[in-house]
Amino acid sequence: xxxxxxxxxxxxxxxxxxxxxxxxxxxxxxxxxxxxxxxxxxxxxxxxxxxxxxxxxxxxxxxxxxxxxxxxxxxxxxxxxxxxxxxxxxxxxxxxxxxxxxxxxxxxxxxxxxxxxxxxxxxxxxxxx
Length: 129
Hints:
Distance between the termini: 58 Å
Largest sheet: 3 strands, antiparallel
CATH topology: Enolase-like, domain 1
Number of strands: 3
CATH superfamily: Enolase-like, N-terminal domain
Structural class: alpha+beta
CATH architecture: 2-Layer Sandwich
Strand order of the largest sheet: 1-2-3
Radius of gyration: 22 Å
Strand content: 15-25%
Number of domains: 1
CATH class: Alpha Beta
């Protein structure tokens, strides 16, 4: 699974909010958001962060976070941090969806096996000699 696209969304009703959707080549997506300086954050997401994350594994969250943090001697608290937080939220949202899907699949398999075992035991005849 690789990051295929970053999409941003801004609504007129909420001019200081930016939503970021991370899309994978397998069709999964994660949603993040941030606020304040929306236009600058949106530009930073598309011009600085997108080239650094496209084609990479979205589950390597820590590696991606280190890769998008600009080094200027300290972490800034402006556009860079807001954009990184939107990406971080989107990646963890995507991670949660993937893990939840795996857990649901495992639980369904376990449930099917239990039902099959109970059905088999209910229909078989036990003879005691």
